[in-house]
Amino acid sequence: MTDQDLDEGIVSWDYGRPYWIRKKEDDYCAHCEPGTWRCKIHEHRPYVCRAFDCRNDERIWVDFEKMIPSPDL
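The structure assignment produced for this chain is given below.
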């Protein structure tokens, strides 16, 4: 990412913590759509998001294969 990428405002980065995407007060990503949990910048998401695999993330899934989401969502 360049400073220009950051300044364009598509991705909301935390300038004080390089390579960290800004989080909202509820500790969710600033680009997470409330209620749907979909990414608002999906087509422009940074590498860290493209590389993330949530299938084994217990914060998201109780059972990915059965498509049972975490009750905490």
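Interim note for the steering committee: The mean pLDDT is 83. Residues 1-73 form one domain.
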